[in-house]
Amino acid sequence: MLYKFIDTTEYQDEIALPSEAMNFNGVFLENEVEGYRTLYVTGRESIAPELDFYESGARHGKKIKSRMFQERVITVGYQLMSPTAFDFRMAYNKMAQILNVSSAKMIFSDEPDKYFVGTLTSMGETDPGKLCITGELEFTCPDPFKYSTKEKIYKLSGLSKIYYEGTQDCYPEFRWDIKGNTGYIAAYKDSADTIIQIGNPSEGQATSNTFAAGDIVVAKCEDASIFVNNKQKDILGAIGNEWESFYLKPGDNQIGVLASDWAQTPDIEMIIREVWL
């Protein structure tokens, strides 16, 4: 008879889970596949960037041209044990069915506040004809970073100092709740060194302006998209908006917001999801 020894400090779900149990696309395999248990996980550690160099003329050595992180591969070692051949095949098929999802969130029980996004790329080799096997599941994460499971929301007014706790740059999302006729809205960082502008700053107060009371405007810096009342309207963005440069760096950041000086000040929120290596 097998006994399960449980560390009471471990994260637990419906049953006692191993410390590195994986929640894949919203479920733990231990809770869904009879006889499955996680043994170990590799590939979650910090990874080093790949450097591209160029010659520096007559000077010794080289200079860094680019610094890029490549995809991440996470390997999950597991055990699968069943009383009969039929039960084993059913359990194995169930495991394969659960894992047949592209770009799924992967959360590990010893770090439940962060997730990777990965796709199963190998189920490895297993010994045929056995009712108790060990094997490896390999997941490829094209994006090597992990993300906070919860977003952080900041209410902005004028110029705000934001401390960002992640280890990698993060692209924010802005949300304006328009209170009255408004010609344009904008967000900037670092004393307006980087700015995004939406609408027409030359508009004066009129019966009809670009934005009206009740409009909800959302701007996503990651993909330079703009939505007004859930309808995509990227055309409202100013030519020259610095979307690619509008990110929060680890540590202190200065974020400011603007609107037509004659308009009622909108309620403004900045939403971020922290990024970690």
Task: Provide a descriptive summary of the structure in words.
The structure is a single chain. The chain has 277 residues and is mainly beta. The chain has two domains: 22-148, Elongation Factor Tu (Ef-tu), domain 3 (Beta Barrel), CATH 2.40.30.200; 152-276, Sandwich (Jelly Rolls), CATH 2.60.120. It contains two helices and 21 strands. The protein has helices at residues 29-32, 85-99; strands spanning 22-24, 27-28, 36-42, 50-55, 62-68, 72-81, 104-108, 111-122, 132-141, 146-148, 152-156, 159-164, 173-177, 184-189, 194-199, 216-220, 225-228, 231-232, 251-259, 267-272, 275-276. Strands 1, 2, 3, 6, 7, 8, 9, 10 and 21 form a nine-stranded antiparallel sheet that branches. A six-stranded antiparallel sheet has the order 11-20-13-16-17-18, with no helix packed on it. Strand 17 and strand 18 form a beta hairpin. The longest helix has 15 residues, at 85-99. It is elongated.
Count of separate structural domains: 2
**Number of helical runs?**
2
Helices and strands: which structural class?
Answer: mainly beta
Estimate the mean pLDDT confidence. 91
Gap from first CA to last CA = 41 Å
Sketch the topology as an H/E string, one letter per element. Answer: EEHEEEEHEEEEEEEEEEEEEEE
Strand content: 35-45%
Report the CATH topology name of the largest domain: Elongation Factor Tu (Ef-tu), domain 3
* Estimated helix fraction: under 10%
What is the total tally of β strands?
A: 21
Please state the CA-atom Rg, rounded to the nearest Å: 25 Å
Biggest sheet details: 9 strands, antiparallel
Query: What spatial form do the alpha-carbon principal axes imply?
Result: elongated
CATH class of the largest domain: Mainly Beta
* Low confidence ranges: 1-13
CATH architecture of the largest domain: Beta Barrel
